[in-house]
Design goal:
Layout (H helix, E strand, L loop, with lengths): L5 E4 L9 H9 L2 E4 L3 E5 L2 H5 L10 E4 L2 H13 L9 E4 L2 H6 L11 E3 L4 H8 L6 E7 H4 L4 H4 L4 E12 L12 E4 L2 H10 L9 E5 L1 H9 L6 E3 L7 H14 L3
Parallel strand pairs: 1-2, 1-9, 4-5, 4-7, 5-6, 7-8, 9-10, 10-11
Antiparallel strand pairs: 3-8
Helix pairs in contact: 1-10, 8-9
């Protein structure tokens, strides 16, 4: 377990306070941020190929701010007026509040979960007569959500945007002790940009089961995993690992 001096997080730098800033200061590290993927808009013509009638749905599911941005953006591109009776189901309070950027905020037609789609489904099941629209990326469009499938609800997945691998050529000559990934797409971006990547002493910090599976399918090693009982967040997992690794080298 070599000493950790540098960490690359495959996401944009967080706004405001971040637990990673505390880790950087505590362990005297270099922590950089670089998004390994980015979001691209779909044209109205691309969307129309899905043959989905947006106005045939009286309820909309939002799992991210990206989905919300692109849903309202697509409605504008298609010159469609959102009916006043539309109900919005958001996975968290933060995403629900983001609705204020697009509509007059009325709590009677906004419903929230507790940070996950699974927690939102029981709320949605109180509206069994509704037809739900689920705006999402190409990644989620092709991914089966078991809880939603088994809910008995009428819903349509509508791809509104694309998740695309970023150009990582600026990192070609840069080495980090730890690379941090939060999604399979981030791992895919690494391997597309660097097809000859060899892990060797580089440690991979991985968030989530599907990301872990992607890493292992590509013959790479998972060194740090979150969430776990001891480390429910990536920042906690990193802190615990770095503390142990650097303690041995003092």
């Amino acid at each position: 377990m070599k000493k950790v001096k540098s960490v690359l997080i495959s996401q944009p730098k967080p706004e405001g306070k971040s637990p990673y800033a505390a880790i950087q200061k505590k362990h005297n590290l270099k922590i950089d941020y670089f998004p390994f993927m980015h979001v691209e808009e779909m044209t109205s013509l691309e969307f129309k190929e899905q043959r989905i009638s947006l106005l045939n749905h009286d309820s909309v599911i939002f799992t991210s701010k990206n989905a919300m941005d692109h849903y309202f953006g697509m409605m504008e591109k298609l010159r469609l007026r959102i009916p006043d009776f539309t109900k919005y189901f958001c996975v968290s309070e933060a995403i629900a509040h983001y609705l204020q950027n697009f509509i007059t905020y009325r709590k009677r037609k906004i419903f929230t979960g507790e940070q996950s789609l699974a927690s939102l489904i029981p709320v949605m099941q109180k509206h069994t007569e509704s037809k739900f629209l689920f705006p999402c990326s190409d990644v989620l469009k092709n991914k089966v959500n078991v809880a939603l499938e088994e809910s008995g609800l009428q819903y349509t997945k509508a791809q509104m945007y694309k998740v695309v691998c970023s150009d990582l050529s600026d990192l070609s000559d840069v080495k980090y002790d730890i690379l941090v990934f939060f999604s399979p797409t981030g791992v895919k971006s690494l391997l597309e940009n660097f097809p000859k990547f060899k892990q060797e002493d580089t440690r991979l910090a991985i968030f989530g089961k599907t990301t872990k599976e992607t890493v292992e399918k590509n013959g790479l090693r998972v060194d740090i995993l979150a969430p776990t009982k001891k480390a429910p967040s990536m920042s906690m997992a990193l802190d615990q690992y770095i503390k142990e690794a650097n303690k041995r080298k003092r």
